[in-house]
Amino acid sequence: MSVSPLERVAPALAALVERARTPAAQAAPLAEGRTSLLPLLGVLSVFWIYVALSNVMYANNMQASLSSQKIEHVFAPWDARLLQHLLLYPLFILCMWVSLRTGWQRLWRALPIQLLCALGFAVLASPALVIGEILTNPWHPMPEEEMHGWLGLHKFLTGAEVPTWLASITSFLVTYSFGLALITGFAFYQRLRDSQLRSAALERALTQAHLAALRMQLSPHTLFNLLHTIRGQITWDPPAAQAMVVQLGDLLRRLLSAGEREFSRLADELQFVTLYLELQQKRFADRLSIEVPLREEVARAWVPSLILQPLVENAVVHGLAGHDGPVNIRVQAFASGERLTLRVLNTIASGKTAEHHGIGLANVRERLEVQFGEAATFSAAPAGERLWLAEIHLPLLRDGPAATPHVETDAH
Domain 217-403's class? Predict the structure, then answer.
């Protein structure tokens, strides 16, 4: 009974989920949430510095213009306004924090809280200016009509400056709205960026799980064929069967090792293919001949793990089928510039059309597409009347500067 790729990769996904439940993984989002407040605080601080400087410069310029017309003490001094913004800064940060925590979901509940934060901040702006005037000039004697100190506080509390207070509320409501829009947009950008990072991480995990499923798909198929090969030797040649069992153990060890990696050295892949073909050759010694030459400079390149195995297995199965004649299987690897070409050629029965869409060929296509996209190509088609060619073109991944082939070398 065959097992689906999803069922094969389920243990890997379960392990991934188990790792996500560890204390370190649970603490990571909390640390990320704490550090994400620092950029928000920085943005709010820069915005508030801009507001403070703008208000101070505007008030100074307007008072200078009025002073030239002999009109004094209309706008508060610069130091009082600066102190006003310093007093309002913690309140501004607190209101923004409450607004962000409240959000806009369930508008019937969120809207009153948002309005309360905005109005509370704007209403306290004018009293903060009075306190700033008191703290910056508490003892200097002034006429009662010009005082903006203790008597100014009395005039404010008794309603003599209500129009000025309303104007201040309106001005700081607009300021608060700009600040809220800025910080909401920045928080949305942070969430979007974090969601994109999580999506990319999940996509990488899914890709790795997909590749693991494709690699694991090879193991039962290969093992099934090789066990049948050994079974054919047990009855009439037990020593040969014993030797094949040893070779099969070596093959399975290499298979498991390669299945845990995304990439392997081409030399290791060619050795694995050679071991597999030698096992098949012992069963079909009178029919099967193999050629797996090796060029050292090409063998140092890196290729997707087990990428050649489906091709040679397909060459054995379909090369031997449909006739009783000899079958020759050749594996070639050569580099040209920054491209690596892998070929598996095998003879087939005259007039026989080999499969174009077998499981092994589909496996190779899918793995190349996942790992390289359009940078790799794969083709499998007749190359003559009795010859079948499976060919892979992919980027040349070198293993250090010593393995940099610059001229085309064919491994014949």
Answer: alpha beta
